[in-house]
Structures are given as structure tokens and as C-alpha cells.
Amino acid sequence: MKNSILLPLLALLISAPVESAMFRWVDANGKVHYSDKLPPKFAQNGHTKLNKNGTTKEKVASASARKMKLLELKKEKERRKSLMEAKKLEDIQEMHDTQLLSMFSNLEELDMVYKNKIELSNDSIKVLKARHKKLSDKLEKVEARHERMVNPADKRKLGMKIEDMLDNLHIYQQAITENLIERGKLEDRYEKDHARFRELTKK
User: Fold this and answer.
1) What is the residue-averaged pLDDT of the chain?
2) Which of 86, 128, 156, 165 has its CA 20 to 30 A from that of 120?
3) Which pTM was predicted?
């Protein structure tokens, strides 16, 4: 009779703290704790939120575990980005290879086309440099004449002409610089396409 009364009471005493508890955590010694309040020093160590009946409501990871998870997510994001970039470059290379093989039937044809383009670029640069030199020589003479002038009106008129000539010189110089840059890019592209075409036709 005593046992039949004591057993339900014992079960009630054991379950009571759990039923009223809202948090469950484990301390540094491995001891399990239940309470309706979570001590601040354990808040960042990971714990379990409980329902009123003692069942698990939510598991809260420790701060270090959350940080590790964020790092893992960041690494995975970077890995996927790297794979996408690599695939994009691979697709671009494949498209360029197809264009190379469709445009040129052999290496000699590729060389001829690029050399003609480079020669045209050189001719354009020569023309621009010649015009720049001619205008520079003319400007030197006009500036000398401007220095000898005494009539203010004529001097002012010729000064405006000098300004126009200086503007044109700047335009020529800018065009020369841009053409030199484009020629450099063309030569670089020729070198790469020559090597790539040889590689492709060897396969």
C-alpha cells in the first residue's frame, strides 16, 4: 500500500522541475540543468528551450557553433562563386575556340590576317605622327611671328589661332596614344590566338 502511494509521488517530484522548466543546459562538468531562467553566463554556450510539458521547443547552438556555421556558409558561397566564374571562363574560351577554327583554315591564314591588321594600325599611327609634326613645326613659326608683333589687335587674333593649333595638337597626341594602346592590344591578341590555334590544331 505504501509503495503504491510513494511511487506516484516520487514520479511527480521527479517530473515537476522538468514540467516547470523553460530551459535546459549542460555546464562545463557535464551536469544537466533545468530552470525557467537561463543564467547569462550560459546563454552563449548553447542550450535547449523547452515547452511547458518538458519537450524540446528549440535547440539554440552555442556562439562558437553559430560562428563556425557562418564561416562554413561563407566558404560554401565562395566555392560556388569560384565554380561559376570558372564555368563562365570555360564557356568564353570554348566560344572563342569555335570562332578561331571557323575563321581560319590554317595558321598561315591567321598570321596573314593579324599582320595586315597590325600594318594598318602602324600606318594610321604614322599618319597621325606626321600630322602632329607638321602642325608642331607650323606652330613654332606662328609663335615666333606672334612674339614679333606689336599691334595688339593682330597679336590677339594670332593668339587665338595659336590656341586652336594647340587644341589640335592635343587631339592628335590623344589619337596617337589611343592607337598605340589599340596596337598593343592587337599584338597581344595575335600572340595568344596564334598559340591557341596551334594548340587546337594539334589535338
Assistant:
1) 87
2) 165
3) 0.60
